[in-house]
Amino acid sequence: MTAELVVSPSDQHVRVSLAEALAWSAYAADLRRLLGVVVEQCGVDRLEVTELLVSQPLPVRYGGLRNGVQVNPVEAINLAERMAAGFGPYCRLVAPGRLRVESGWDGAIHLSMDPAAANSLTGLAGDSLFLEWRASEPDPEEELGRVDDVVDDEFWNSVRVAADGLVLLCERWAHGAHGCRWFRVTEGMWRGWHRVYGLAHSYVLSQTRTCGLTRANWRRISPRSKLRSRLAGLFTALTREGPTVFPK
Q1: pTM to 2 decimals?
Q2: What is the mean pLDDT of residues 85-106?
């Protein structure tokens, strides 16, 4: 079992209005102080971003955020405060075996840790905080669904064999409406497949899911399918190579 600390606003107005509430700044300050103490007591110097949810375009400062990215405590606390405020991006921050940070409802933040670390945190308090300790099950050692295939020459050769003219490639790098990008694969890209991504992180690190759509696949999609209607614009809009945001 692990110890779970649920931190939420003690002021009902803050729970309802979040960052728009007059008392939000007091809650945010207390929350940041508490998170700093927890991180220190758990002996954490880096946390990994997982379960990333991107429902809106990422702010410029988080443009490089991906599953698998390691962030320092200050960056993790900044992300936790944004999640509590309802701004996003939303994710789970994990230091395996030490600490897990994720957002809940109404401005709450859930902190899961080893019971030994929890015992050293007795007496935590804040005028704007409501604290609740719970017992929870630890995370499995490996997260289900993690991608470990490599986008290499063998991958591209398999796509090329299946291709029939125009090929669109979908890179699913996060949950949510803005968590994928589409690429039109051109002849020049076949000769330099690494140009399709231009990612700073490896395929395994970013846990990217990739699938291809060819003309043959397209013909097998029902004309009445919502998927077909959403993809139809891509065949006309992708007139040059490069990424395109998936249409809503």
Answers
A1: 0.72
A2: 94
